[in-house]
Every structure is written in structure tokens, then in C-alpha cells.
Amino acid sequence: MPITLKASYFSANSPNSSSFHEDSLIEISDNGQITNIIHQTASEYSERLSAARQHDHLITLAPGHFLLPGFIDLHNHAPQWPQAGIALDRPLADWLNHYTFPLEARYADLDFATPVYQDLVTEMLANGTTTALYFGTIHNSANLRLAEICSQAGQRAFIGSVAMDNPDQTPDYYRDASPEEAINKTQTFVQAIQDTYRNGFIQPVITPRFIPSCTTETLQQLGQLAQSQHITVQTHCSESDWEHNYVRERYGHTDSEMLQSFGLLNQHSVLAHATQLTTTDQSIIKTEQAAIAHCPISNAYFGNGILPAHELLNQGIKIGLGSDIAGGYTPSLYANLQQAVTASQIRQDGVDATIAADQRGVANSRISAKQAFYMATVGGATSLGIQAGAIESGLLADFQIVQAPPRFASLTPDEQLEQLLFRHTRHQIKAVYVQGKLVHEKEHNWYE
Ligand SMILES: [Zn+2]
């Protein structure tokens, strides 16, 4: 059934600007697309309002509630959900070998995988995340189960079957046996997803874990596959000192240079972290129109640096936000957008008070709440090439309905948005829609 939402909403237009409209009518078609938005000033406003009321299509948000676009998580390791919040004091290589690989190996067992994936997807929707780009494991059966769970729960998902076959950097018990196995498994997974979800609600992703875990042959063949089939690619890129230096030692080049040479960089590629990029890397990423998944919470533990988000946004490089479950401890993109702003402020000011203030930090690093909001919404949608991320006619109706904190003084729309984003708790997300369908409802009091 088509619906009309009468709502006050915020939506990002560009990194530096967002719009606010009060009590607009947002008309949504049967197939979950926003077909029309009528603002209060429009001449047909009252006519459309009574028509929606007459046809019983109207849903009016209760006072103090706002509509925001659904958030898009550009980097999430679904199988690491049981490990969220654990062992963040370990260096990356240690964390992978002692915690992550043993855990991911357990997904050979669907009875282990199923309740984890169900819980994660439910939690993500309750946090307002309407689309996610997931790493699975090396097991196609568990990856397909994750796809089924996302589809049933109504979360739009991009899912990768992880390729990792380098015996030097992966354990015996959790590795693709050969490049042939890594490639065949990827192809089978891509085909299975494309055959099952013909409407594209769930999409397959080519997923070399990262350069250290993969042999050169696998990286080359996955690159050929990505180029011939125009499928989304996800991987980690220059994510820590150890990882960045490993690739330089192995190839004499950086991650970005090597990913480009393998054919793994294009307008469908999403690169996680990227805290160690050189200026040449930045221009390669820009030229190839690849995107960066900024994971500020995870970066604080494993990144050995703070992503220059402000600089990258100014250069017009595509950036979205990622939770990086479980290098990040929370699936909330609110927590990540707050951290993105906080980390950028720390980058600007510096951290060592014994150094003179004018030499302590990196000037012009701070990003605004608006820029973080843009990354969580439009930035993510642009990176994945989906028609979502904003509240605009023609886009998909992916929304979250959020209750504002009590207001004691009048606020401008910009201040209201900032407060919604920064004083957020998960309990304020009252309802979530994906493609016009209600997929999460905390309680019924969000509409009149
Ligand atoms: Zn990751």
C-alpha cells in the first residue's frame, strides 16, 4: 500500500549542507520509492493532505519526532559480532590470529552462524542502519544464510564471501586451500546471490580480505572478475603501520598502487580504513573513483593514525562511515559519526601538550556534525551506487524516525540536527523503514 508520511525531516545535500523541512508530505509508492515531496508552502499541500487522509494512507509523526535517512554502514565483519568489545588492546596481527580467525572458523557450522547473524541484523536495524556492506567468512553456506537473514529482516545488504589463501598470513584451519578454490568459491557465491535476489536487494561483493591474506594469483583473478562483472569490491587498504609496511615490503608499492594494478580499484570499490594513505594513494583513489569506508572507532585502536577526513572530503573523494564490527565495538553509526568529529578535533589540536600549540596538530582537520551526517548517509549511498541516503523524490524510502531529546530553549534547524546526532541514544530510534517497509518499531507512540 502506498503511504504518505507527514514529517519534519533532515537530509544532507552535500558534505557542507543539509536541508530541513517542517511537516512535509512524503509520498511513498507500493514499491518503496519516494514519488513526491510536498512542502507546506506548496499550493497543493492541503489537497494532498486530505487525499492521503481519505485513502487512509497518512502517517503523521508525533510532536518531537523527526525523520532522518537510514544510515549506511560501509564496513562490517558480521561474523565478528560475538567478539565486539573484546581485546581491543591487542595489535592488529595479534588480534586477528588469537581472536578473529578462530572465531570466524566457527562459521563452518550453520547452527553457530544463524543466531549470531539474526542478532546482529536485528541490532543494526534498531540502530537505524538500513543498508550494510558486510564481510562474511570463507564459508559460502554461512554467507548465504546471512543473505537470507538480511532479506527476511528487510535490511539491504552487500555481502562478500571472504577470499584468503596466503599460507604465510593465514592459519591452516581457516584458509582457502588454493587460488582456484578462492576464485571458484567467489564465483559460486556471486552467482547464487544474483540468482536468488534478482531485484538487487541483496548484492554480492568481491572480497579479498586484504593483501596480506591473499596470494598474488588470487588478487589478480579477483581483479579480473571485478572488471568483467562490474561487481562491488571491498577490502582493507593501508589500515595500520603493520599492514601498510607489509605490503610495501612484499611488493615495493603501497596498497592503493597494488590494488590498482590488480584491477581491484574502480567506482564500485570500497576501501576500509585508509589511515596511512600517501598523497599519491589519495590521487589514485580519486582517479579510480573508489570510496573510503571511514571507521573512526576502530581506527583509534588499530589505525595508528586519524584519517584526514576533512582533506579527503574537500578533494571530492567518496567517503562513508563504517562500524567495522568488531575492530569497532558498536554497530551504531551514531557512535561512529560522533567519533569521526571527535577524532578530527584531536587531529587538529594534537595530543602532546609539551609541544607548542601551533605545531602540535594538523590545521584544518576538524569536520563538522553535518559532514559526519553526510558520510553516514549520502556518502555511503554514493560509495555503493544505491538510490538512497537522502530524503528526495525518486530515491528509495529508507528512513529512521527519531525522537529528539527534551527541548528547553529554541534551536535553529542546524542546532537541532547536531543535538539529534550527538545526544543520541538507541532508544530514541522509534521506527525504521527500508524501501517503504516498516522493519523495526520500538514502540507505537511515534505517530499520531
Ligand atoms: Zn575490517
Describe this structure in words.
By secondary structure, the protein is an alpha/beta fold. It is globular, with a radius of gyration of 22 Å. It has two domains: 120 residues, Urease, subunit C, domain 1 (Roll), CATH 2.30.40.10; 314 residues, Metal-dependent hydrolases (TIM Barrel). Strands 6-7-8-9-10-11-12-13 form an eight-stranded parallel sheet. A four-stranded mixed sheet has the order 3-2-1-4. A four-stranded antiparallel sheet has the order 5-14-15-16, with helices on one face. The site of zinc ion has 6 residues, from strand 6. This is Guanine deaminase. InterPro entries: Amidohydro-rel (IPR006680), Guanine_deaminase (IPR014311), Metal-dep_hydrolase_composite (IPR011059), Metal_Hydrolase (IPR032466), Metallo-dep_hydrolases (IPR051607). Pathway: Purine metabolism; guanine degradation; xanthine from guanine: step 1/1. Its cofactor is Zn(2+). It catalyses: guanine + H2O + H(+) = xanthine + NH4(+).
